[in-house]
TrEMBL record:
Coiled coil: none annotated. Residues 1-15 have a biased composition (Low complexity). It comes from Calonectris borealis. This is QNR71 protein. It comes from the Eukaryota. Residues 1-22 are annotated as: Disordered. The lineage of its organism: Eukaryota, Metazoa, Chordata, Craniata, Vertebrata. GO terms for cellular component: plasma membrane.
Amino acid sequence: TTGASSNSDSSTTVESMEDNPDGGCHIYRNGYYGTGISVVEGILEVNIIQMTSIQMTESQAENSLVDFVVTCQGSLPTDVCTVVSDPTCQVSKSVVCDPIIVTDECLLTIRRAFEEPGTYCINITLGDETSQALASALISVNGGEST
């Protein structure tokens, strides 16, 4: 494109030039185009406000369960993904994605299982058709207890 200018009718004039390698001549094309832009709010912010270990009986203690209470600002999410990684947040151990229904206020509880005690990096992503937002935390899981 060699030049562009705006018209008062919101259309844009586009002038393009192409080289013809065979004949050495130039081809000029002029025209107008228009487009519409839709602005959507999207999910603006995600916060993990609470992490609670779920107490289980000894016979159920194969996995440690932790509830994450999450809030968000902006539009309401339609899905949630949780990535559990090593403490450096570099090596992913598991990814779980689920559809969710949030009708009024963005406040939800996400329950995830941990196979063994240790320290984990948790990334929780809330998404909808047009946006995604992420919150991260480090969690220490100690055989049915978390801190």
